[in-house]
Amino acid sequence: MNLDRLYELNDGHLLPKVGLGTYQIRGYQGVDQILSAIQSGYRLLDTSTNYDSEGAVGEAIRRSGVPRSEFYVTTKLPGQYHHFDDALQIIEESLLRLGLDYLDLYLIHWPLPKRDTYVEAWQALIEAKKRGLVRSIGVSNFEKEHLDKIIAITGVTPAVNQNEIHPYWPQESLVATNQEYGIVTEAWSPLGRGSSELSEPVIVNLAEKYGKDTGQIILKWHLQRHILPVVRTISPQHQRNNLDIFDFTLTEDEVSQITNLESVDGRIDDQDPKEYEEFG
User: Fold this and answer.
1) DSSP codes joined into one string, 185-243
2) How confident is the model at residue 145 (pLDDT cuts 50, 70, 90)?
């Protein structure tokens, strides 16, 4: 893969600039859908214990004929396993489900600050990396206060923070915080998950200008903000289109126009990381 299509993490490892999300992609049908994406060129595969798609991801990798070394596999720690020993065991369980010897990236899925065990969970991820179970470690849905706390206590900065980011919820402050820490920002639901963002006039006009579809315009907006979008799609055509975004550049003003679509109630499911209880 071309180096200009990779982000370098603060630990020296690399990640492709666009990833495949596997939420609600599972079973044998899921294997076929992931295989299609691999054939289209995806190498960053993002799953989670909570998605129940780890088995499908692992099987698709084995069937693909592509060497394991070419993949960047991510999975995530569920909230019920934040305690140190539990976290290490579920990481091992994820490897067994995937049929892999190591993970490229492992994330704490949610901070769950009301339970306040995310520092212990982070300490477990640090240990998992030392043991060679994981190459890079990071977090998901962490706000500035959560990042500050784990870094201050452990001295270890996450390589990645995966957050809800899309035109209605651009998260400028959090993206800036991640960048200050040298953390790569990943975006989940980067296209807004069934929202009207794909039909916003400013995005439609830009699609016409550049000869792209509206999804490609939004994904390019992410890249030009130095964000890694993790896109879930089962359509082979959309899978290919989502990778075909490296041959044009939005102007700074056009990036700002999309960012200005921000809405005060822009979150998809109103999942505030300061309040959200994954197993409430």
Assistant:
1) EEEESTT-SSSGGGG-HHHHHHHHHHT--HHHHHHHHHHHTTEEEEE----HHHHHHHH
2) very high
Q: 227 has which bridge partners?
A: 185
Distance from C-alpha of 80 to C-alpha of 115, rounded to nearest angstrom = 10
Residue 109 assigned ligand-binding role:
yes
pLDDT digits (tens, 9 = 90+) for 207-242: 999 999 999 999 999 999 999 999 998 899 999 999
| Domain residue ranges in the chain | 3-194+227-232
What amino acid positions are annotated as catalytic residues? 51
E-state strands within the chain = 6-8, 14-16, 19-21, 44-46, 72-77, 103-108, 134-140, 160-164, 184-188, 227-231
Task: Tell me the pTM.
Answer: 0.96
Mean per-residue pLDDT over the chain, rounded = 96
Return the percent helix, strand and coil in the chain, to nearest 5.
45, 15, 40
Which numeric CATH code is attached to 3-194+227-232? 3.20.20.100
